[in-house]
Amino acid sequence: MTRPAVYPVRLGRRYTRHVAEALRTETLGGAIMLGAAVVALIWANSPWAAAYETVREVRIGPAALHLDLTLQEWAADGLLAIFFFIAGLEVKEEMVHGELSSLRSATLPIIAAVAGIVIPATIYTGVTWGVPGALDGWAIPTATDIALALAILAVTASSLPTSLRAFLLTLAVVDDLGAIAVIAIFYTEKLALGWLAAAVVLLVVYWVLQRRRVRAAWVYAPIAIAVWICVHTAGVHATVAGVMLGLLIRVWSHEDEEESPSERADHLFRPISAGLAVPAFALLSAGVALSPAGLGGVFTDRIGLGIFLGLVVGKLVGVLGGAWLAVRFGIARLSPDLSWRDIGAAGMLAGVGFTVSLLIGELAFPGTDRAELVTTAVLVASFVAGALAAILLHVRVRRRDAAVPAP
User: Fold this and answer.
1) Is residue 357, in this structure, part of any structural domain at all?
2) pLDDT classification of 35: cutoffs 50, 70, 90
3) What is the rounded CA–CA span in Å between residue 203 and residue 239?
4) Nearest CA-CA partner of 76 in 189, 183, 191
5) Global pTM?
6) Residue 179 vs residues 108, 135, 138, 356: alpha-carbon distances, Å
7) Following DSSP, what letter does each residue of 316-371 receive, concatenated?
8) Is the pLDDT of residue 405 over 60?
């Protein structure tokens, strides 16, 4: 009889270093993004709120290529492509060197992540059933913002086992894959097949150049930009271009290379993503007018309530329940240095949706009166989930410290 997989299987040096490096970077990135969101909220609720709206609606870019976008659209379609490029790199690294390289070691976080997508979507669908057009937003509460989640984990519970960080990171990678698939499949209205074919050809050229060990950045930059333009013009959300470029990059190094192309790209673009792309998106998307009526709408409007319950309750139930069922039926086994309280805290952290939830909200309800409600609901739910997770993690740290005998 095959023994159930223990999570986590022994972590290699490369993966442990990757986890620690991600924690350090994402902590700073999460803080910058949170600061940008706070600035957006203050600006949108100040006497200069009209100026905020004016800035968001400024259009730049060549109309001939259908690229005369607003600044808000450039942040969501353009800058977030860098964020999704990093996500693509992380997925590729995990598939080759990390937890996803072995199905046996990845079983627990994969099942937890899938359940953490299905349960929130089910809760949202149940709450909003019968509301005209509401089902367009079913995917909003399925996403996790890894930058904020890891930032909260690092600040409140740095002494907890590395296996908990590895679990959360792997969970978020699978979550990102789900979000990418949802955006590509469900939020693409009509395709321009010629432009899509051109994007595929360019991606093949990019892949071949990677395999032939071409290293010059000036070769890849125009290809990447052309891929983004083709994908955007084809009608697919342009962030998918970033993901595909990240997935096709080479993640191993040859004898004459100190680091792989993936490591070089990560080193170059992660600071741009954390310090510019995601904060700019937060600044231009998180600004909503807060009022007692608007905040109350999160709990009285069924769309707002569905998002809130999906993120705060659905993520916790999905992640914790999925992991428990995997262990209960012998598919996986929890590592001795983790407890169910740790998994529960990770599930609550997964309810911090923010970046990807806001993006899906914009795609689901573009230019409608519901857009502001969706943004408010995502912000409130992410704040509540993050605060509850921080409390749970703080309690876990105190109890662990109390259980360790004094030297």
Assistant:
1) yes
2) confident
3) 14
4) 183
5) 0.79
6) 19, 16, 12, 8
7) HHHHHHHHHHHHHTTSEEE-TT--HHHHHHHHHHTT--HHHHHHHHHHHSTTSTHH
8) no
Strand partners, 334: 7
**Domain of residue 157, residue span:** 5-187+237-401
Give the closest residue to 297 by CA, choosing from 362, 354, 375, 234. 375
Q: Residues 6 or more apart from 168 whose CB is under 8 A from it?
A: 149, 150, 153, 346, 349, 350
pLDDT tens, position by position, 328-375: 988 888 877 788 888 999 999 999 988 888 888 888 888 767 888 898
CA pair distance 102, 99, nearest whole angstrom: 6
Q: Take residue 380 and report the two structure tokens written for it.
A: 């409130």
What's CA 264's distance to the chain center, in Å? 22
Which 3 state secondary structure label does DSSP give 224?
A: helix
CATH of the domain at 173: 1.20.1530.10
Distance, in Å, from the CA atom of 364 to the CA atom of 361, rounded to the nearest integer, reads: 5
**Residues 276-299 pLDDT 10s:** 888 898 888 888 877 776 788 888
In whole angstroms, how far apart are CA 174 and each of 28, 107, 114, 405?
Answer: 22, 11, 8, 38
**Cα(355)–Cα(283) distance, rounded to whole angstroms?**
11
376 within a domain of the structure (yes/no):
yes
Structure tokens at 44: 């949108």
Domain count, the chain: 1
